[in-house]
Amino acid sequence: MKKQVKNIVSISFCTAAAIQLLTGCGAKQALVGDVTEQAPSFEISEKTSGQTGEETVHLKIATCVAAPQNMDKIVDQANEILKEKLNLTIEVVPLAFDGSKYNLLLTTGNDVDLIYTAAWAKFQTNALDGAYLPLKDLIQNEVPGLWDSIPEEDWKKCEINGDIYNIPSTSDDLIEIGFTYREDLRKKYNLPEITDVASIETYFSGIKEKEPTMVPCSDRGGRVNEMFQLLNGWYAMSNNLAYDLKGDQGVVVYSKTDSFKQGVETARKWVENGWIDSDIISANVDSGGQFLSGKYASTISYASGEAFNLIYSPALTSNPDWEIKMVNFGTMGQRVLKKHPMHTAFGLPKASPHPVEALKFMLELRTNKDLYQLLDCGILGEDYEVTDNGNYKSLNSAEHPAFTKEGLGLTGFYYSVPELSLKPEHYDFVTNVYDTMRPFVVDNTIMGFPADDTSVKSEVTAVNQLISQYLNPLINGMVDDTEAGIQDLNERMDQAGIEKIHDTISSQAELYMNAIKGK
Questions:
Q1: Residues whose CB falls within 8 Å of the CB of residue 512, separated by 6 or more in sequence, listed in order
Q2: pLDDT digits (tens, 9 = 90+) for 433-486
Q3: 3-state secondary structure string across 31-96
Q4: Which of 74, 73, 115 is nearest to 98 (CA)?
Q5: Closest CA to 426 of 289, 304, 300, 288
């Protein structure tokens, strides 16, 4: 049986971030506590020994956000603080989730001192390949206050080959994505409460009938598939592998699971019914922007905190008559991951010109309330105000475009210091969702696993070509005959050596989990 592929697409860096199945990069030794190829220890050279004389050090910091309003003015004010405190200044380079720019800056240096890191940006494999400076000795010897300011458990979870390659982000964030929708429309048309996939689909049908000019849902690449991963207890890894968080299966080939089949069939159904766009790649607006445009009645995207910052809070100004609600897929599936300290943090590229000063900046950011709130919230009275109860209130509006919280990608979700952060007004949107999630939190250790696929390089290359050519169209609902498409994909995966990759990574994952847990 021959499948029809409407479009063969190349998923963007942001899509790869969403589904975490599209990466595959070489690595060195990948186990904790069993080091056979340790990265070289870092020696302090003249360029890393701190400032020379009275010369002001200028740091370049790469973040994965789009350039926000008032960025230059905010950075200028931050530099006044930093010059007085540390005799340094910073420059923020917003990469806007551009994978090509990220990899170029990471591999060529380009005078970048600090760079955003995340599991979906292949942090672990890049660290194993020597892209980042090892930091443990450097921090403990040169900036010990930074080490002491972060819990030992978080440092331990960030270890790769016994060393540290990023500064952990301390956070209580629960990161699973959810279904964000127009509750006012649900009530208006007397549609059922959203509790599961069936009620989501009923909502779509009602919107399609009652609001024919709207698209029921915005999905910007593979989120339906990710929804089923959460519902069924899988943690997506690279190279078409996944880890069982609810059972004892360990690592599996995900495209061979019933969960994958559910995701593919559902994505196709939603496309055929006109509930999500049939062409998810060509649009240049993300799902949050689409939802706020008023043309979409819901979106499958973002963890709770991100949904607050990118959808709920802006909508309070732009669409105050809307009532927005979120139901989290982790709650539906009764398994939720906390944000791993390695996830969305900052590392130092191997060619970092000023590593000691970069670490001193990170310590100052962790401990200087004025600096943190400036880089987190913007300029008081211009970008935000503090309410009578001490909460953050954005002053951003269509008439007065302003910086919005966490817009520089340096704080909050990216490098969290909760004790310094102002809670936003209406933050009960997040806390209410979190209240439904906390009973189902499971161990997040696997998020730090650095898979070593060196011995299966040729198989990884072949598998990732199949992911691009065959898997991506399936999970985005672009294949007519899903059953034949899945069968064809898995036959090709077997020929490409997926089981060899699976066996290699599965044994490593078991050793890693045991080592982290002290077994």
A1: 30, 31, 32, 449, 450
A2: 999 999 999 888 898 888 889 899 999 999 999 999 999 999 999 999 999 999
A3: CCCCCCCCCCCCCCCHHHCCCCCCCCEEEEEEECCCCCCCHHHHHHHHHHHHHHHHCEEEEEEECC
A4: 115
A5: 304
Is 497 within 8 Å of 456 (Cβ atoms)? yes
199 Cβ contact partners less than 8 Å away, ≥ 6 residues apart: 192, 193
Which phi and psi (to 5°) does residue 274 adopt? 75, 20
Strand, coil or helix: what is 184? helix
Token digits of residue 188: 């208006």
Helix axes 223-232, 258-272, angle to 10 degrees: 140
**In one letter, which amino acid is 123?**
F
Residue 425 has pLDDT above 90, yes or no: no
Q: Containing H/E element for 232?
A: helix 223-232
492-502: pLDDT as tens digits? 999 999 999 99
DSSP one-letter string for 235-280 = EE-STTEEEESSSS--EEEGGGSHHHHHHHHHHHHHHHTTSS-S--
Q: Which amino acid is at 139?
A: I
| Closest to 146 measured CA to CA, from 106, 107, 114, 105 | 114
Helical segments of 368-497, H only: 369-377, 428-437, 457-466, 472-475, 482-496
Kind and range of the H or E element at 116? Answer: strand 114-117
Give which of 172, 141, 149, 168 is closest to 157, Cα–Cα. Answer: 168
Place of tokens 């089923």: 228
Q: Quick one: which of 84, 74, 76, 120 has its CA closest to 99?
A: 120
Instruction: Phi first, then psi: give them for residue 72, nearest 5 degrees.
Output: -65, -40
**Nearest partner of 136 among 119, 122, 150, 155, judged by Cα:** 155
